[in-house]
Amino acid sequence: MLSKKNRLNRKEIDELKSQKNRIIQGKFFGLICQKAAGKNAFALIVSNKVVPGAVKRNKVRRLFFKAVEESFPHKEGKFLFLAKKSCLVASLPELKEEMVNFGNSITS
Length: 108
Description:
Layout: H1 10-18, E1 23-25, E2 29-34, E3 40-45, H2 54-71, E4 77-83, H3 92-107
Parallel strand pairs: 3-4
Antiparallel strand pairs: 1-2, 2-4
């Protein structure tokens, strides 16, 4: 699990959702990002409609945060990930690969 300083709080999540930011689409997640100097924070929204059942949602969250810790490029900003239904079948190596792809598309 990510440390508290690397997670977005509810207020920051609501701000990101309300702004007209570009959403980068991936195979398992959508990404809304905003540049923020000196801050590197993440959040994941796994909707009840997308992944029914708390056990499955928690499994997705654990895999996601492990993939972020291990392979997300060190970029400064606020990152809000939106889970897709396909994330249920994702493995850790697949999630790591998607994080690398997100890092490449952010710099572009």
